[in-house]
Design a protein that fits this description.
Layout: E1 2-8, H1 15-35, E2 43-49, H2 60-66, E3 68-74
Parallel strand pairs: 1-2
Antiparallel strand pairs: 1-3
Length: about 80
C-alpha cells in the first residue's frame, strides 16, 4: 500500500512561498508516519500549495482549514 501525502496552504504569500510551506508540512507528516513504522518507499509527497478554485479567506478559522495535509491511501 502507498500513502499519497498532499500538502495545502492558505492563500497568503507568493506561489513559491506556498509550495515551501506545503513541503515543510509534508516533511513533518512524513517523519511522523515513518516513526510509526510506515516505510519511506510507501510515501509519495505532493506539495500543492493553495487549492485551485478556492476563494480566499477573510478570517483565521477559514485559513486554518486550508492549511492541511491530506492522506490518500492507494493499493
Amino acid at each position: 500500500m502507498e500513502v499519497m501525502l498532499v500538502g495545502y496552504t492558505d492563500d497568503q504569500g507568493s506561489r513559491s512561498y506556498q509550495l515551501a510551506v506545503a513541503e515543510q508540512r509534508l516533511e513533518v507528516v512524513s517523519r511522523l508516519l515513518r516513526g510509526m513504522g510506515v516505510q519511506g518507499r510507501q510515501l509519495r509527497r505532493y506539495p500543492v500549495g493553495r487549492e485551485m478554485g478556492i476563494q480566499g479567506c477573510s478570517d483565521a478559522e477559514c485559513r486554518g482549514r486550508m492549511r492541511r495535509v491530506e492522506l490518500i491511501y492507494q493499493d
